[in-house]
Amino acid sequence: MTENMQENVRTNIRTKRMTAPQIMKYIIVAVILAYIAVLMAYASGSSRPFEEVEAALSSALDGSGLKKMDSQMLKRNFGLNSADYAGVMYYASESSMSAEEVLLIRVSGDSQVQEVADAVSERISSRKNAFDGYAPEQVKLLEDAQQSVRGRYVFFAVSPDAEEYRAVFDGSL
User: Fold this and answer.
1) Which of 9-23, 78-92, 119-133, 146-160 is the least confident region?
2) Which of 27, 59, 69, 99 could form a cystine bridge with 138, CB 3.0-4.6 A?
């Protein structure tokens, strides 16, 4: 080989080596892509039918003292019409002295998610006002309420076991 060719080979070898900053760029891009994938998997909804999610949550509510409520109670308490949604499950305490309730709604369209979230926020606010001053333990339950939006599912729970119900909801998707 000529001297000129040998110099070209050495130059090509030197230029093809990756430097530490170049390696870090690839690592950072890979980490970002992995994070986005995990985020999308967690934040996405579920293709599971409403009946399956409802059954899992209902079984967790057995023995909780909460009673299944009808569409009239949903309308009265949240101002929502159950016929507008793909699925509705609403349990609440029979006692007017308790703030405990669990709501699961599968919306028909993405535009309804905000409507349901606003109704839940209004419910929390009105219940806090109702219990303020004479039932601090109920106000604390309302402050610790669990809310979640996963795809087209909206979950809301006010209970000492709200975190457990939320875990059942998350696991059922």
Assistant:
1) 9-23
2) 99
Residue 5: enclosing H or E segment and its boundaries?
Answer: helix 3-16
User: For the chain, what is the radius of gyration of the CA atoms?
Assistant: 26
Contacts of 75 (CB under 8 A, 6+ apart): 81, 82
Both tokens of residue 85? 């949604």
Indicate whether this model's pTM tops 0.90: no
User: How far is residue 27 from each of residues 20, 32, 33, 37, 153, measured CA to CA in Å?
Assistant: 10, 9, 10, 15, 35
More confident site: 10 or 136: 136
- Please provide the DSSP assignment of 29-85 as one string: HHHHHHHHHHHHHHHS---S-HHHHHHHHHHHHTTSSEEE--HHHHHHHH---GGGS
Separation between Cα atoms, residue 68 and residue 66, nearest integer Å: 7
Among 65, 73, 88, 70, smallest CA distance to 152 is for: 88
Q: Strand, coil or helix: what is 91? A: strand
